[in-house]
Predict the structure.
Amino acid sequence: MKFNLKNSIKAFLFMAAVLAQVKCSSSSDPAENPPVNPPVTPPVVVTNDVDFWLTKGNQSVLLAKQSGTLGFGTAANAYANIEVNAAQKYQTIDGFGYTLTGGSVDVINQLNATKRTALLEELFGSGENSIGVSYIRISIGASDLSATTYTYDDLAAGQIDLNLEKFSLEKDKNLIAMLKEILAINPKILILATPWSAPVWMKDNASFKGGKLKVEYFDVYAKYFVKYVQQMKAEGIAIDAVTPQNEPLHDGNNPSMYMSAVDQGNFIKNSLGPAFKAANLNVKIIAYDHNCDNPNYPKAILADADAFPFVDGSAFHLYAGDISALTNVFNSYPTKNVYFTEQWTSSEGSFDGDLKWHLRNVIIGSMRNYSKNALEWNLANNQNFGPNTDGGCTMCKGAITITSGDSFQRNVAYYIIAHASKFVPMGSTRIESNSGGSLQNVAFITPTGSKVLIVENDGAATETFNIKFNGKWVTTSLEAGSVGTYTWK
């Protein structure tokens, strides 16, 4: 074979080039040489599961929805838990609100038409900027926060009107007109009606202040209630419930009337209950309507076998005693309801102090003690904390102060109620939540299935805590004296 040097050199150079190409290719091919470090895991995106509305005691934040993200998770931490259990249910809720006094109507009517309409919508509507008040209390005749004293059957001295022929709602025509506007905004709102005094010709002292209802006028006074309910219904206003007397053991107000537990029991079983039944009125009769220091008053009425069937439940205020009195009465008569119907805020009170006390007692306290509602006292007043009767309350601070024809300010009672009324509609049910230490709280499930947790930090320092539900939790915090309402599906 003839050796061809030229061809051998060509072959050698060709193979060297191929080997060089293979070596170069293999050194840069990621499929052949995976990286030493694994790929970076994308960050976990936390979605917002819980909406959070906050009010601070220093007023720097007022019922403001917070922008932070609260997502349920299971990462362990050492914070305290507020555990919400929707399977454990308690009382259904009728609503949250205020007393619409005659004085409230007077001052709200001083606003110009645009502002007045906007205020009523804000209070009683269900829109984004409304607080959803769902329960109001009104007086049968004048309260001490009316401009003057009156009933619906006022007569000259010495006269009587056994057939109530002179009965008239005319003096409450402005209240009736406003109630119609409120019902147009919220047709389902519940109305509790309460007298401060019977007509003076029925009383043993013939005066608006103090005195007692004469026994011989028990039946006539029951007819007075019937006439009131019927005429309000004729105006398109359904009265859901009445109490026989506001603060029956406080006879120093103007107007006022003393009514012992024995007298109230007799009035209910012998006169008011039978009169409502005869007139086919489906109106609740709620006993007592006074302070938590005397639970034996409503219990005495409920212990009367003849009064018992006519009584829906008992109502309470907290100017004396402890809110646990509601549970005392409820446990004694668990088929009967309990209600919380009045608590004032004073012109001399502080925003931070009142916010804490009222959230702890009036909202959280009443609900955890089986109340079906929670009402603050006066809805609105002027800058002098009026109107009021001669001898009526001069320090009662409304939820709203009307400052001019085109302006008003929201006071602490507005926020006390709003933290519940905006989020817990009528028909909601209280559910279980553990409460202790500084973090006072109460939980609900709404008719649409949303969960609501109201928390008040009653301590002196910021508290960080978990809201635990169905085995997962979110972590949040509240400054001292702040209140938060948390909602989730």
